[in-house]
């Protein structure tokens, strides 16, 4: 097995292990006839060095709370991670419990990118044990990693005690040229630099190749200088195959406590492939049988072994390194936690609840009930009161806004809430208010990272700017993370700011996203009830849609109880017997249709009002309940919402009226906008009278 430079040697188990990562990755992509082999081949030395020698991680307990986190932001190189998970013997996790079976086997690697396999094309959280977050859209993992690092800082600030440094873990990220081009990585890096997250290290795979060819086509900046401007510590490793240099860079990153670190790794994509190394064709397509044969020969691989060959001693080598170190470190941590629990029982109980994704008793005891009031409150204002009532009794709830907390009313104002900032910026890492800055995309990605750490994260902005957050919202839903997205200024009620700030299609977009519950409450008490619902929702995100303008607080002695919100839609007011017309609305338009209903009743029209805060929750109810709210034989229906009517047709029915927005709004005082676009009592009554004649 004589080898060329960089190849495996019989007495070089480190190099043998590195090349096993490479060959497994090549073979899996080739068998699938789909995937990205080149980056796995290039980064295998850094992956080996980090996992085998540095990572504080126990393969036998991949959910150990104090483990280091590894994020593969270059998710297309998933075989790099899958090969490593297999070789290091990471155990499987089922329903939140570690089981005595491997997360991945060779057979799983052979099923790469196949239906129902444990090795999908990009790493997916909860799907494959050892995967810390779902990555695929470039930059997403970079953003998540900042949230993971912030969570460690927050946990340490709240729960570490003298002699009990329970939380001192590090977050590592592998990222590439594509990540560096995506804006979210810049937003996230800027945030991390400002916060001085010395527990965060990114490895930048600078192979200068993208799908279209050399990155010189579009990307010629000095990335290192950019990150120095972000206040990062920057190092360069000229050859990733120099394991001593990679190790030295990691150790230097550990010594820098007040800044995140960027290690720029110069690599050759498709390393070892005789013709395709260093070319775009090694990036996103199988190498081909001949090229794989040549690459394996360059590593000194025997020519007579089958595909997916694992040399004797490689897995044992990982167990002797990472396995033994991880078992020792995790056992020591659990011993320390047991002693901590005796000395600090209250804090230990909170930590156990965080680890087990449970809520503390009494979290909802101070949620307010609002008195009936014709003037009422903007739902952003009532939500501001509720969020403070909840957060003071849910100690690990934290969040903020994209520079809009005075407008979104999301600032936590109770004593001790504080702001998450390093001491030099007059805060502490224990603060519960996060200043995300004008960085909506990163805000969503960071919130996902906080949620991945067991913290109850919320973030906020204007509904129109949810456009900048589509990717992290989608990933929250895909990962089933209980992130709360608070979106205010939810309609043409924004008024003079005009169509650039008046959301039209955003509600439809959120409702079209699988796995997220969108709630648009109609008054202050529906806001309280929305929070009662969303906080115990532990396995899906919720988008809470709130108004800028005041909404009348309904008299619940006259109208139906607010508990109906949890069913998505409920009969708020109704005539006796079968109605001739049903008025439906969400949010700020509920008060409008109630006023129209009262006029219709005075005219002797048999009418019903349905408050419709959540399509998703309504669709979860059984058919009998849905029919009781919207009787199928009642054809007369009017749906009212200051947004695109898209989606309302399923409830308005064929021939039903929909009063919505088919334009982008206008800049004017709200009262003028309501008249211009037909959101008046007179218009609703007129449409309802027409509908009441339908039989």
Keywords:
single chain; 5-stranded parallel beta sheet
Provide the gyration radius in Å: 28 Å
Spatial shape: elongated
- Number of helical stretches of at least 4 residues: 24
Beta-strand residue fraction: 5-15%
Helix content: 25-40%
Distance between the termini: 85 Å
Number of E strands? 22
Biggest β-sheet: strands ordered side by side in the sheet = 12-11-13-14-16-15
**Strand pairing plus helix content: what structural class?**
alpha/beta
Biggest β-sheet description: 6 strands, parallel
What integer is the average pLDDT?
Answer: 96
Q: Unreliable stretches, pLDDT < 50, 5 or more residues?
A: 1-11
Site (Important for catalytic activity): 36, 283
GO cellular component, one term: cytosol
Protein name: Transketolase
GO molecular function: metal ion binding; transketolase activity
Short précis:
The chain has 24 helices and 22 strands.
Would you mind describing this structure in some detail?
The protein is an alpha/beta fold and about 700 residues long. Strands 12-11-13-14-16-15 form a six-stranded parallel β-sheet, sandwiched between helices. A five-stranded parallel β-sheet has the order 1-4-5-9-8, with helices on both faces. The protein has a five-stranded mixed β-sheet with strand order 18-20-19-21-22. The longest helix is centred in the middle third of the chain and has 30 residues, at about 315-345. It is elongated, with a radius of gyration of 28 Å. The N and C termini lie far apart (about 85 Å). The relative contact order is 0.09. The model is unreliable at about 1-10 (pLDDT under 50). GO terms for molecular function: metal ion binding; transketolase activity.
């Amino acid at each position: 097995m004589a080898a060329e430079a960089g190849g495996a040697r019989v007495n070089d188990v480190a190099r043998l292990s590195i090349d096993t990562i490479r060959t497994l990755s090549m073979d899996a992509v080739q068998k699938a006839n789909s995937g990205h082999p080149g980056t796995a081949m290039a980064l295998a030395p850094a992956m080996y060095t980090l996992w085998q020698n540095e990572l504080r991680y126990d393969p036998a307990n991949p959910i150990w709370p104090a483990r280091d986190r590894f994020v593969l932001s270059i998710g297309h190189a998933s075989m790099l991670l899958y090969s490593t998970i297999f070789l290091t013997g990471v155990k499987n996790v089922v329903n939140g419990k570690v089981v005595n079976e491997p997360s991945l086997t060779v057979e799983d690697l052979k099923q790469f990118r196949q239906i129902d396999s444990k090795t999908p094309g990009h790493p997916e959280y909860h799907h494959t044990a050892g995967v810390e977050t779902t990555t695929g859209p470039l930059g997403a993992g970079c953003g998540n990693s900042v949230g993971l690092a912030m969570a460690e800082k927050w946990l340490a600030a709240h729960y570490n005690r003298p002699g009990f440094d329970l939380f001192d873990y590090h977050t590592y990220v592998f990222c590439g040229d594509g990540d560096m081009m995506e804006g979210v990585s810049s937003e996230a890096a800027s945030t991390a630099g400002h916060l001085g997250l010395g527990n965060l290290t990114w490895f930048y795979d600078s192979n200068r190749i993208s799908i279209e060819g050399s990155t010189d086509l579009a990307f010629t900046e000095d990335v290192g200088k950019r990150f120095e401007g972000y206040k990062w510590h920057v190092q360069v490793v000229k050859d990733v195959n120099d394991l001593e240099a990679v190790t030295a860079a990691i150790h230097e990153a550990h010594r820098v406590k007040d800044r995140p670190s960027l290690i720029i790794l110069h690599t050759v994509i498709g390393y070892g492939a005789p013709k395709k190394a260093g070319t775009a064709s090694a990036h996103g397509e199988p190498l081909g049988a001949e090229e794989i044969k040549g690459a394996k020969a360059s590593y000194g691989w025997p020519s007579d072994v089958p595909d997916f060959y694992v040399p004797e001693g490689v897995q044992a080598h990982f167990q002797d390194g990472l396995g033994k170190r991880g078992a020792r470190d995790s056992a020591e941590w659990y011993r320390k936690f047991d002693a901590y629990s005796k000395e600090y029982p209250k804090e230990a109980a909170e930590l156990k609840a965080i680890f087990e994704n449970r809520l503390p008793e009494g979290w909802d005891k101070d949620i307010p009930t609002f008195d009936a009031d014709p003037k009422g409150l903007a739902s952003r204002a009532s939500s501001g009161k509720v969020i403070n009532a909840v957060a003071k009794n849910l100690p690990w709830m934290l969040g903020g806004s994209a520079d809009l907390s005075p407008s979104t009313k999301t600032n936590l104002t109770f004593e001790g809430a504080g702001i998450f900032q390093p001491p030099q910026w007059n805060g502490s890492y224990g603060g519960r208010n996060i200043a995300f800055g004008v960085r909506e995309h990163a805000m969503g990605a960071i919130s996902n990272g906080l949620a991945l750490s067991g913290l109850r994260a919320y973030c906020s902005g204007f509904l129109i700017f949810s456009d900048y957050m589509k990717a992290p919202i989608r990933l929250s839903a895909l990962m089933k993370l209980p992130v709360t997205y608070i979106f205010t200024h939810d309609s043409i009620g924004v008024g003079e700011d005009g169509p650039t700030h008046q959301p039209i299609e955003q509600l439809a977009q959120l409702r079209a996203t699988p796995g997220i519950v969108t709630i648009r409450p109609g008054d202050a008490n529906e806001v309280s009830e929305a929070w009662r619902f969303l906080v115990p929702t532990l396995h899906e995100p919720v988008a809470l849609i709130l108004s800028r303008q005041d909404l009348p607080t309904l008299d619940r002695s006259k109208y139906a109880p607010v508990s109906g919100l949890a069913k998505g839609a409920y009969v708020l007011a109704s005539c006796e017997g079968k109605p001739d017309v049903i008025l439906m609305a969400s949010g700020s338009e509920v008060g409008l249709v109630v006023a129209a209903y009262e006029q219709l009743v005075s005219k002797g029209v048999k009418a019903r009002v349905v408050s419709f805060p959540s399509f998703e929750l309504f669709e979860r109810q059984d058919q009998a309940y849905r029919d009781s709210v919207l009787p199928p034989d009642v054809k007369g229906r009017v749906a009212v919402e200051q947004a695109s009517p898209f989606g309302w047709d399923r409830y308005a029915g064929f021939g039903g009226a929909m009063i919505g927005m088919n334009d982008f709004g206008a800049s004017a005082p709200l009262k003028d906008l309501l008249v211009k676009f037909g959101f008046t009592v007179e218009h609703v009554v007129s449409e309802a009278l027409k509908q009441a004649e339908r039989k």
